[in-house]
Specification:
Length: 461
């Protein structure tokens, strides 16, 4: 061993200091500093798509190569859920990180008093009482605490396109957007924003260019009305699916899923072409599920056990997270995820403080994921009371664990409903009700559901 040298020791100390400083700088750049990481976020939301209706989820006919590639590059949760199986409350939960009974957007529309219900649609949109009713219902959601509100409060840019119910994009605290929300011009759930994906991708791509010119982090909320009705896919896609489908109606739905996938490909390619791939967190989720009838007229809510139902056909969705170099690609087939997790995950990644306690978790926190035992939610009437009292329009509460799925009907709103229990992993299509065979499981899960939200408790909304 060479003799001790204070010069060598000093140089070693200096080297250690330099190494520590470099490590500290790298860690701060990676984890975020007071200047925040140069992170962009793209939230992709499909509209009315069944949880198994993707290539990567094993569908034998539907081909979704762009979403499949995204899934292969992502942390992919195949057992993701939305808390409510109707689009407006589901989207409000996505952007707020709160359950519907907390943010109080429990249905798509407010209930009409008799004097407004008696009017024609044309008369109603010109009636100031109706405009006030719509505005008051949208105001249930505190937009300062939503994802776009928290993002743009940092001085960053955010773009809205596609489905959007809460007035216009400015009301939603975006800096850019497409939806005007004016009922006298057909504004209700997206209006001009619903052109995205079906007619054009230009507004989103132009926004990416503008954000790059401004050198500001950007948030893209891409929620096209796809594969939602009307099912009018391009003939080139429909022809591809006719041979293998049991009916023309089914072929149309499959083609709509492919059309949506193509639009996702345009958006992802747009990130790559602008050199934004590596500093962009991409999240994918569906707003609610869907089951496609094979014949006849398609109801607004599709076939049974899909949209608006408490079954996995309406509630389950894959949830994908891609952030190259930061999130390891892997498939999670056992652990549970929720769309309520999108807000806390994005806030943590971007270094933004969360607005108080949230029911969701940061999906990049492995400890939080491992300790999660269940996800839950509730189904409400299509129309909400004003002032909004969630317990009054509640139809079902539900809870899913690693093994079980419990559905509890609210008798006043779902008189035909019954308590149902499924061993959900073994029975993903909920075909065998085990509630009478396993009453002890029903009791235990019911107690946990009441602990989450008991609508019959004193003071419950």
């Amino acid at each position: 061993m060479p003799p001790f040298s204070p010069i060598r020791a000093g140089r070693g100390f200096q080297l250690a200091i330099l190494l520590a400083a470099a490590t500290w700088a790298f860690d701060r750049a990676a984890a975020g500093d007071s200047a925040r990481p140069p992170l962009n976020v793209v939230v992709i939301v499909s509209d009315d798509q069944g949880w198994g209706d993707y290539g990567f989820m094993g569908h034998p006919h539907i081909r979704t190569p762009h979403i499949d590639r995204l899934a292969a590059e992502s942390l992919t949760f195949t057992r993701g859920y939305v808390p409510s199986s109707l689009c407006r409350p589901s989207l409000a939960s996505l952007v707020s990180g709160l359950h519907a009974h907390q943010h109080r957007i429990v249905g798509n529309d407010p209930q009409l008093p008799p004097e407004l219900a008696a009017l024609t649609a044309a008369e109603r949109v010109r009636d100031p009482r109706w405009l006030t009713l719509r505005r008051d219902y949208a105001a249930n959601l505190d937009h300062s605490r939503t994802l776009p509100g928290l993002w743009t409060a940092e001085g960053w840019l955010a773009h809205q396109s596609g489905k959007w119910w809460e007035q216009d994009w400015r009301f939603g605290r975006f800096t850019h957007g497409m939806t005007h929300g004016d009922p006298t011009r057909g504004g209700r759930h997206g209006d001009e924003g619903l052109k995205i994906g079906r007619e054009t991708m230009r507004p989103v791509l132009d926004f990416l260019d503008e954000a790059q010119r401004a050198s500001k982090p950007c948030l893209v909320f891409y929620a096209p009305m796809l594969p939602h009705l009307p099912q009018n896919p391009p003939e080139r896609l429909l022809e591809r699916f006719r041979e293998g489908a049991p009916s023309e109606l089914v072929a149309r739905y499959w083609a709509m899923c492919a059309w949506f996938d193509e639009s996702v490909g345009v958006l992802l390619d747009g990130l790559d072409e602008r050199g934004m791939r590596d500093n962009t967190l991409v999240l994918y989720v569906a707003d609610n599920g869907w089951t496609q009838p094979e014949s006849g007229e398609i109801p607004s809510y599709g076939g049974p056990r899909g949209k608006r139902s408490p079954y996995d056909g309406g509630l389950r969705t894959p949830i994908l997270l891609r952030w190259p170099g930061r999130i390891a690609a892997r498939r999670e087939d056992a652990r549970l995820a929720s769309s309520l997790d999108v807000l806390p995950t994005v806030l943590a990644a971007a270094g933004i403080a969360a607005p108080g306690e949230l029911p969701g978790i940061n999906l990049l926190d492995d400890e939080a994921l491992s300790s999660r035992e269940a996800v839950e939610g509730a189904i409400f009437d299509h129309d909400a009371t004003l002032p909004t009292r969630p317990a009054e329009t509640l139809q079902f509460r539900w809870m899913v664990t690693e093994e079980w799925k419990l559905i509890l009907p609210e008798r006043a709103r779902a008189p035909e409903g019954r308590v149902e229990l499924f061993r959900i992993v073994e029975d993903p299509h909920e075909s065998r009700d085990l509630s009478e065979e396993r009453p002890e499981v029903v009791r235990a899960l019911r107690e946990r559901l009441d602990g989450w939200w008991d609508p019959g408790a004193s003071g419950s909304p």
